[in-house]
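Bug #77: duplicate submission created two jobs. Keeping one. Sequence:
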Amino acid sequence: MIPRALKRLFHQASIGDQSYRFMFRSEPSDEVVAIDCETTGLNVRTDDVISIAAIKVRGRRILTSEHFEAVVRPDAGMGAEGIKVHRLREADVAQSPFIRKVLPSLLHFVGGRPLVGYYVDFDIAMLDKYILPHIGIELPNRRIEISKLYYERKYGDAPANTVVDLSFAAMLKDLGIPLLAQHDAFNDALMTAMMYIVLRDWKERGVRIARPRPGGAIFNPTGG
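Kept job's structure:
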């Protein structure tokens, strides 16, 4: 696997559309973008994005007034199980633009800022399906995985064979963040931004998250 730093240099040299070179510029060091995508399913190859939300975080402030949000019409069909999750029907997206139309606005909003997300690699892989043919490169932005930050605070010093729970609900509960309606791109991005601020603050202050005593089944979405 090519290291991300090396891939970034390659992308900077090989970008097809020079008008997107702003994606490599240095943004304010205290700014990141929390991002979330809702999709028709979990297969990057065959499923599509149906909604995107991105919210800027500056220092310890979540700039909800500076956010990007779009519902898009997928190329792939929308199955019944997916509709139950994200509550968007084909009729709800029929008049929405295809994702290719909203990509320029999204990319200008994000710029060169790091992207914060929950299993952010999946969201970026879904977006890269469209970004790569559009400008000739994948998203070069640094990624910050919220579950990794949480793992470090709770399980970084855990003994071997500790059962790990990285579910979204467990993270919110431990961090004292209210659960908003999930599987809504804006709400998920907002909750992710709140978790990022708390976890970064706790890391700076050396605060750790207490672990429960062994016993009982705990959900671990990583399969580990």
